[in-house]
Input
Amino acid sequence: MKIPKFHLDSLWQNNTFFKVISVVIACIIWIVVAMNMKTDIPREIKEVPVTMDNQTSFITRMGLTIIGDESLFVDVTIEGQRLVVGSIKPEDIAVSVDLGSVNGAGNFSLPLVAENVSGKDFAISSISPSTVNLKFDRMVTKKFNVDVKMEGLVVPEEGYLMEEAVVSPTQVSVTGPDTDIAKIAKCVVSVDHEGSLTKTTAFTSDIVLLDKDGNKIETSGLTMDIKQAEVTVPILKTVDLPVKVEFLNAPTNLDLEELEYAVSNETVTVAGPVDEIDKYSEIILGYIDFKALDLESNFTFDVELPENFINVAHTETVTVTFDWTDMVAKEFTVTNLSLVNVPSDYDARLLTDRVTKVKIIGPAQVLETMTADDLVGQIDLSKRSVETGQFKTAVTISAPSKNLVWAVGDYTAVVVISEKD
Output
């Protein structure tokens, strides 16, 4: 029997052959894919956030706060089937910090824990980095006085005075970690100015925190309720002002220029605001009442200055001393009494016809020849409210024809006032 020859070329022209080959190849590919689908593959998920929300109650119970940036991210390597791991996103993984070893304030290197929160089937292989360095401390708030540091501030050598600078506000509250707050020795606001100041000037500057060695403290981890302060540097103008006394109840004919007296300080050096001090040409010490100006009398006055003025030389009092040389005292009975300024619709008459024991002060040579006839007593009804009835009222004693003579003390007379018919 003749065996037919097999020709390979005939296979490529046989459709049945191609169908069989296609099925075989498809089965092989399916087997390979199926085997690969069941094989776990690794994948790194980047920028997975680290959360500490579930641990804050633990920290709070210890009175601690995490210091620094809490926005932490890590890379997490996972393993699983290709289709699963390919769909995983950062939010499918929860990474937290294990705070179990934190037992107080300080710096700690803490392990990280990752958890699959997606419900999908994959495993977590590693976390990079696997630990995180965190600082824990107690947050405190403390108040500090604001000190002023001035550099370069000067005034002209003569005519001006610089007072102590005034800062506003006077205190600053600083909040931050207890260990950092403890480093603060002082709070300073600096004023640097070139040139002389001739008027009160205000400067605004940053508040700087310094340690005990005077080094600047960084404030990145601290909170200040104010960051700037205003420093007012008061500049006063200095002048020598003459002092002066005024006189009350001086006889109209008495020439004050002939009354010899001296003051312990002719002038007082004062300093005041530049825009105010030029309004003053003298200092009025006070008033001397001739009714109280008796022999050997001297008067001491407190030097009182306007508000915001300074007594530069600390001249607190000035004494007025009179020259009583050749001055004497003598008593008289005054009978020459008269009423003046009687209202037109009233009648007035004196019940008193004399004033006794009137003490007169004057030069010895004047009083030696003076008699009671040289003295007059006036009752001025314009100096009081007029009503009908009998009243005791003041009498002014004077010696119209004599200079440098006055009465010491208070004297009265009785007056009867009635309405005119």
